[in-house]
Design a protein that fits this description.
globular; two-stranded antiparallel sheet; alpha/beta
């Protein structure tokens, strides 16, 4: 069954290895008949600060690229996030985009007398492709996967997106080209299956 897929590139460098993974995934998914949009956060124009938090009294104007991002998420069946692990988390621009896009009333809504939100993005699935210089075991067991925890549990599942699968590409700076090429092929296979 064909689906709408939104691929979010969270690396600011358009020539990065993350960009290769994102572009390969996108092209493979298109060839399989899926409708695919590749959203490059580094090309968007928006204020990185959520200036007033979630204040009801002072609302921050949504820039066209934020409105477009929300529309793409709303229309997507499957979301794919591709980003590097920097300081065990994610690049600032990706975190800023999450802050500005996944807002109350769009991604979730608070409920009176309940600590649990109403999840407004149910029915969608996601995949995280994360690159890092550290070994995966070190990131998981010593760092406790903070970037993945933030995106998978603290954002996507919080808003109702499930399941969220994670693929790690580790020790990038030590890998030979043939290993990097194999991972590009892995991204291509995931894209062709829309997973």
């Amino acid at each position: 069954m064909n689906q709408n897929i939104l691929v979010v590139l969270g690396h600011p460098n358009p020539n990065s290895y993350c960009a290769q993974l994102a572009e390969t995934y996108s092209e493979a998914a298109k060839k399989s008949g899926d409708s695919v949009t590749l959203l490059k956060i580094g090309e968007l124009n928006f204020d990185y600060n959520l200036n007033h938090g979630y204040s009801k009294d002072k609302k921050q104007e949504l820039e066209p690229d934020i409105i477009k991002s929300q529309m793409l998420i709303q229309n997507a069946d499957h979301l794919v996030f591709v980003y590097p692990s920097w300081w065990a988390s994610m690049p600032a621009m990706l975190k800023a985009w999450i802050d500005r896009v996944f807002l109350p009333g769009f991604a979730f809504s608070y409920q009176k007398h309940s600590p649990f939100p109403k999840q407004l993005l149910k029915g969608k699935t996601a995949r995280i492709l994360i690159t890092m210089d550290a070994p995966t075991w070190y990131y998981k067991w010593f760092n406790r996967s903070p970037g993945v925890q933030l995106l998978k549990h603290g954002t996507l599942e919080f808003c109702g997106i499930k399941p969220v699968k994670v693929t790690y590409f580790d020790q990038i700076r030590f890998r030979k080209q043939n290993a990097l090429d194999k991972w590009i092929k892995k991204s291509e296979r995931m894209g062709s299956r829309g997973e």
